[in-house]
């Protein structure tokens, strides 16, 4: 599939997700980066969104809990170009009953070429980037071109 360039905006929409064993770590991370996160729009899956909002006072658009469809809701928002950055503190040492949903979410983030951080160190690197508060060009699939080509065959 051909690609096109599209800029991620300066004010980003950030998805915040954490497995149960990492929720507290994500809460602390959000508290540590309160000033930066307050400049952007935040989305979170169920419990994670509620915990972050309660701890930090930041407004978080809360979706369903991950296992109940929240991961899939975020995936849809990524595919619709509504999410520009994914912070997902996942627990690699615990099995997850909704692992296929998690893999689908990470796959969509890779397909649509948005930045992803899966731990505190990579999340710190993303937030400290000079691109965090400026437009950032990215290559992404040319889905409209793909459809146009398919319809002429």
UniProtKB/TrEMBL annotation:
GO biological process terms held by the UniProt record: methylglyoxal biosynthetic process
Active-site residue numbers: 71
UniProt binding sites for substrate: 19, 23, 45-48, 65-66, 98
GO cellular component, one term: cytosol
InterPro entries per UniProt: Methylgl_synth, Methylglyoxal_synth_AS, MGS-like_dom, MGS-like_dom_sf
One term of GO molecular function: methylglyoxal synthase activity
Pfam (any one): MGS
Keywords for the protein's UniProt record, in alphabetical order: Lyase
UniProt keyword RNA-binding present: no
EC number: 4.2.3.3
Keyword Lyase: yes
Domain MGS-like stretches: 6-153
Catalyzed reaction equations: dihydroxyacetone phosphate = methylglyoxal + phosphate
SUPFAM superfamilies: Methylglyoxal synthase-like (SSF52335)
Described purpose of this protein according to its UniProt entry: Catalyzes the formation of methylglyoxal from dihydroxyacetone phosphate.
Matching NCBIfam families: MGSA, PRK05234.1
Family under the similarity heading: Belongs to the methylglyoxal synthase family.
Name used for this protein in its record: Methylglyoxal synthase
Species, as recorded: Pseudoalteromonas tunicata D2
């Amino acid at each position: 599939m051909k690609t096109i360039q599209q800029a991620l905006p300066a004010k980003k929409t950030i998805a915040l997700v954490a497995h149960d064993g990492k929720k507290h770590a994500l809460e602390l991370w959000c508290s540590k980066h309160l000033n930066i996160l307050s400049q952007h729009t935040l989305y979170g899956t169920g419990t994670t969104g509620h915990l972050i909002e309660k701890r930090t006072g930041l407004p978080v658009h809360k979706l369903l809990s991950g296992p109940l469809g929240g991961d899939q809701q975020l995936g849809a928002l990524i595919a619709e170009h509504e999410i520009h950055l994914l912070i997902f503190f996942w627990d690699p040492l615990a099995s997850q009953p909704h692992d296929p949903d998690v893999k689908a979410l990470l796959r969509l983030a890779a397909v649509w070429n948005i930045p992803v951080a899966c731990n505190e160190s990579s999340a710190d690197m993303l937030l400290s980037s000079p691109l965090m508060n400026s437009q950032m060009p990215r290559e992404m699939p040319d889905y409209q071109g793909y459809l146009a080509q398919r319809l002429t065959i």
